[in-house]
Structure formats: C-alpha cells, structure tokens
Design brief:
The protein is α/β, with parallel strands linked by helices. It has a single domain (about 5-200, about 240-285), classed as TIM Barrel (Alpha-Beta Barrel), CATH 3.20.20.220. Helices cover about 40% and strands about 20% of the residues. The protein contains twelve helices and twelve strands. The chain has helices at about 5-10, 20-25, 50-60, 80-95, 115-120, 125, 145-165, 175-190, 205-215, 220-230, 240-255, 270-280; strands at about 15-20, 40, 65-70, 95-100, 130-135, 165-175, 195-200, 205, 240, 260-265, 285-290, 295. The two termini are about 30 Å apart.
C-alpha cells in the first residue's frame, strides 16, 4: 500500500497553474519558476483585451511552456472573433488545449451566452484543438442554478462522446476535501465520465483567500475561510492547502473509480511562490504531520 507521501505525490503530479495578463507582467521569464512543459492557463477576464491573453500565451510558448488560454463565452462578440482568436492561438502560441468558461458577466457582449454555444460552433475542432476544458462547480455557482449546471454537464458529456473530443472538467478553487469528493461521486453517479482537475488555492494570507472567495461566490467552503477571517490577529497568517491536498489524495487513492486526475493551482499568494509549492509536492518533498496534512520541505 502506498504511503501518505506517495499518495500525495501521485495525486499532485502533472499539475497546472493559472496566470492573468496583469500577473504575467511581474514575471521576467516563466523559465525562472517553472519546469519546461508546465501547463499554464491564461485568463480572459471580463472587460479585458483578448490581445493581452494572446500575448501572454505567446510568451509562455516561447518559454517552453504549454499555454491554455481561456475562452470566455459571454465576453466574445461572435464566431468571427472566436475564429480569429483560435487562429492566433494556434499560429503564434502553439496552443493545443483551451479552457471554455461562461465568464463572470451578467449580460453577454455578443452572440454567446454559455460554453455550449462556443463548443457548438465547431470552430475549436476546426482549428485542430481536441483537448478542451470546461468549468466545474463543486459548490455551485452564483451565475447558474444547480439544475442548469447538471443539464450543461450532461450535454458536455454527450458532445465529448459524439465528437470524440478530449473534454475534461476544471473546477473553481475549494477549501475542503470532503465537499469536493462528495461532489465528484454525485456527478459520476449522474453520468459524468469526464476527468477532473480540482482547483487548489495556493498558499496565501487568510485575508487574501477571503477576498477571492467573496469575489468568486464559492459555497459551503466559504465557512472554512470566513471562520478564520473573523480572527483579525490571523488575517495576515499564510494558509496552506495541505489538508485539502492530503484529503483529496487519500480519496483519489481509496476510490479507484474517482475521476479526479490533476490539481490546478490558483496563485493567490504569488505565482512563483505557488509554482515552487506545487513543484515541491509533486517531487514528494514533504513531511507528514501527526494531526494530518503535511509541511513542504524547502530546497
């Protein structure tokens, strides 16, 4: 039987990380903090210029990384703009994978209101991209009802089968393993067969995590960080996701049908810091703690 460290190391292999165009301006070279071939998502935030996402994806490609740009449905004007974006991603950035999301705006700026609207155009497939991520919501979403989420997930599973697409789910960040594992079992029982990347909040102060949790509208896990945020003396204490990761790793190891495959890190406490943390866990540089979880061994 695998040791706790081996379980965690296996679960944490082939991790990915996220960067915003603004955050990328603070990074001289991605080679300074990432191994070659690391998967890096590039956000396309509401109101931003898609040219910024293209530029960061191109930088990542030139630095030897694997860029995965976001395609935010409600922030795209029409199929022509989508086609232009995909052409740029393929020709300039070597993109082989994209993440399709609805996008956090109430009113679409153009023709697309949901991820399925983008997938239904066939344009991603036309550009030779078969590896496509779609959003997952272990704790629900403020933008869409639970019934609508379930219906959309069913439609995405159907599309993956019909078109032979390599679809996967990438989730919002969470704080509690039990909530995530319960959600995975429920969507699997409901028919989901898509592999899953779980969003992990990188090490950050409780104040920072609370702010991002509020912005993102996450559900039950909010209690976890809100309870700690009430203690003003602890607001600047750095919170590590070690209990979440250890709990997920144990669940992935004990349930052989579990569809969770990888971790995706949100670098709320800094990109380089989060990358170093994720790399150490994947390398197994860990010390298991008596009361659960682990410490990362610096080095």
């Amino acid at each position: 039987m695998a040791t706790a460290i081996e379980q965690i190391q296996t679960a944490a292999a082939n991790w990915s990380i996220e960067v915003t165009p603004t955050g990328a301006t603070k990074i001289g070279s991605f080679r300074d903090c990432l191994d070659e071939g690391t998967t890096v998502n590039v956000t396309f935030l509401p109101g931003s210029d898609p040219a910024d996402t293209i530029a960061v994806a191109e930088r990542l490609h030139n630095d030897g990384m694997k860029p995965v740009p976001h395609l935010a449905a409600r922030s795209l004007r029409n199929a022509d703009q989508l086609d232009e974006l995909l052409n740029a991603y393929r020709s300039r950035c070597g993109v082989e994978e994209v993440l399709c999301i609805g996008g956090g705006v109430d009113d679409p700026v153009g023709d697309f209101a949901a991820t399925m609207d983008i997938l239904g155009t066939g344009l991603i497939q036309k550009h030779g991209i078969r590896h496509i991520g779609v959003a997952g919501h272990p704790e629900g979403s403020p933008d869409i009802s639970d019934d609508e989420i379930a219906e959309a997930l069913g439609a995405k599973n159907d599309l993956a089968k019909a078109d032979g697409l390599d679809l996967y789910i990438e989730t919002q960040f969470c704080f509690e393993a039990d909530i995530v594992l319960d959600w995975e079992r429920r969507v699997r029982a409901a028919g989901n067969a898509l592999p899953i990347r779980i969003g992990i909040p990188g090490p950050a102060t409780i104040k920072t995590l609370f702010r991002f949790a509020q912005i993102s509208g996450i559900g039950p896990s909010m209690r976890f960080v809100a309870k700690q945020a009430k203690n003003v003396a602890k607001l600047m204490t750095v919170q590590s996701p070690h209990l979440l990761i250890a709990g997920l790793a144990e669940g992935m190891a004990t349930d052989k049908d579990c569809l969770i495959r990888h971790f995706h890190y949100y670098p709320f406490g800094g990109f380089a810091r989060t990358a170093a943390y994720a790399g150490a866990i994947a390398d197994g540089r860990l010390e298991i703690l008596p009361k659960g979880g682990f410490n990362v061994i610096e080095g």
